[in-house]
UniProtKB/TrEMBL annotation:
<dbReference type="GO" id="GO:0019363">
    <property type="term" value="P:pyridine nucleotide biosynthetic process"/>
</dbReference>
<dbReference type="InterPro" id="IPR000868">
    <property type="entry name" value="Isochorismatase-like_dom"/>
</dbReference>
<protein>
    <recommendedName>
        <fullName>Nicotinamidase</fullName>
        <ecNumber>3.5.1.19</ecNumber>
    </recommendedName>
</protein>
<comment type="similarity">
    <text>Belongs to the isochorismatase family.</text>
</comment>
<dbReference type="InterPro" id="IPR036380">
    <property type="entry name" value="Isochorismatase-like_sf"/>
</dbReference>
<keyword id="KW-0378">Hydrolase</keyword>
<keyword id="KW-0479">Metal-binding</keyword>
<comment type="pathway">
    <text>Cofactor biosynthesis; nicotinate biosynthesis; nicotinate from nicotinamide: step 1/1.</text>
</comment>
<dbReference type="GO" id="GO:0008936">
    <property type="term" value="F:nicotinamidase activity"/>
</dbReference>
<dbReference type="InterPro" id="IPR052347">
    <property type="entry name" value="Isochorismatase_Nicotinamidase"/>
</dbReference>
<keyword id="KW-0662">Pyridine nucleotide biosynthesis</keyword>
<dbReference type="GO" id="GO:0046872">
    <property type="term" value="F:metal ion binding"/>
</dbReference>
<dbReference type="Pfam" id="PF00857">
    <property type="entry name" value="Isochorismatase"/>
</dbReference>
<feature type="domain" description="Isochorismatase-like">
    <location>
        <begin position="5"/>
        <end position="201"/>
    </location>
</feature>
């Protein structure tokens, strides 16, 4: 069984240009990811999959997105515009992804009262998504992360992946972020946790 896998995080319409929570230049990761896909026999994708009225939506609380927060049972919850609502066009994976041999699409954030940035744990840092077990059953030890966004779902997936015992590498030119300051802070957290980084060109030519 292959020890390496590519984890493609939240490359969905709502996070791309024109989407309700667009990551700046988010679509630029897609051709890079498609090239990387040819190198990996094992690929999994994640898909944000929120119900209407989700706890992370500012509209749910009558508050302002990006500015205000709410206190959830698991701590402070950032508030966002409505995004990736189940069965909506915005929740769809980008049709430009060319990963026909991907073996898994993991949906996360589908519980109304808890958000899920990480591909491995929901925001209570207790509820597992099951992805770690999926990779372990496949004999995967080395995970290469790409997608959206650097400072949130990719970032927390990298940290939690390390906690689950995987060797984690973020492919930096296959990731885009929301805010430069929070990207810098997340990068420092990666370094402290032992997360590695690499460019796609280096990886493709190994």
């Amino acid at each position: 069984m292959s020890q390496d896998a590519l984890l493609v995080i939240d490359v969905q319409r709502d996070f791309l240009t024109g989407g309700s929570l667009a990551v700046p230049q988010g679509e630029e990761v897609i051709p890079v990811i498609n090239r990387l896909g040819k190198k990996f026999a094992e690929i999994a994708l994640t898909q944000d999959w929120h119900p209407a009225g989700h706890i992370s939506f500012a509209s749910t609380h009558g508050k302002q997105a990006f500015v205000e927060t709410v206190e959830a049972a698991y701590g402070t919850q950032a508030l966002w515009p409505d995004h990736t609502i189940q069965e909506s066009a915005g929740a769809e994976l980008s049709p430009d992804l060319e990963l026909p041999h991907a073996g898994m699409v993991l949906r996360k954030g589908f519980r109304r009262d808890i958000d899920s940035y990480s591909a491995f744990l929901e925001n209570d840092h207790t509820t597992s998504t099951g992805l770690a077990g999926y990779f372990r059953d496949k004999g995967v030890t080395n995970l290469y992360l790409c997608g959206l966004a650097w400072d949130y779902c990719v970032g927390f997936s990298a940290l939690d992946g390390k906690q689950f015992g995987f060797n984690i590498t973020v492919i930096t030119d296959a990731v885009r972020g929301i805010d430069p300051q929070s990207m810098t802070e997340m990068t420092k957290r990666w370094q402290a946790a032992g997360v590695s980084t690499v460019t796609s060109e280096t990886l493709l030519h190994r």
